[in-house]
Amino acid sequence: MKEKTRQLKTPIGLFLLFILYTICLTLIDVQKVGPRNSEIGFATMNQYLLKKIGVSSFWYQVTEVLGFFPLLMMGYFALRGFLQLCGRRKLTLVDREILNLGFLYAGVAVFYILFEKVVINYRPILVEGQLEASYPSSHTFLAITVLLSAFYVLKKDEGRFKRIIAYVSLIGMFGIIIGRILSGAHWVTDVFGGILLGLSLVNFYTAASKSHVKHKKRTLISQRS
Questions:
Q1: What pTM value is reported for the model?
Q2: What is the mean pLDDT of residues 122-127?
């Protein structure tokens, strides 16, 4: 029990920090400085950073294209889990890491829908002439949750190609995060919110996976003895 509690300290801490940060965005330096007088938290800092960084259609398009990579990785692991289920005939026989990825992806979907309904900040630019929710940056937290978790899984798999894809996933993750900042499609605080949420979800995933591995090892040792 103590070991499980210790493993959960980081993800719970990150998630609580995300909640506190989100609350602060709704209370601190809120000004109507966004498109169509939309209210933005940490307005002074966000305006300053946006002026320094600017808006880049090039980086916006780059991140839109790179944004398909996490979706492809989700499809790959979904197919991998489905094939295991077909071959092994029982859901409990599917690799625990793959099952945990399913829960992780479900969490991504829940938070995506939640923040589409509960708007904290709107984007600093209009999308097709309309205001669009900006917090947290969906590209950012999708990239972190999917690609960072994929890195953890693939780097342990056998085969050179999978290890290459693991590191490509890591590079793609950083590319999306940096590109999203440079695109000016989000306030910088919204990208940071996406980073916090993504890291908290991935740490919940790794904590669950490590707990299962250690439990499995203890079971094998007890069986041998």
A1: 0.87
A2: 90
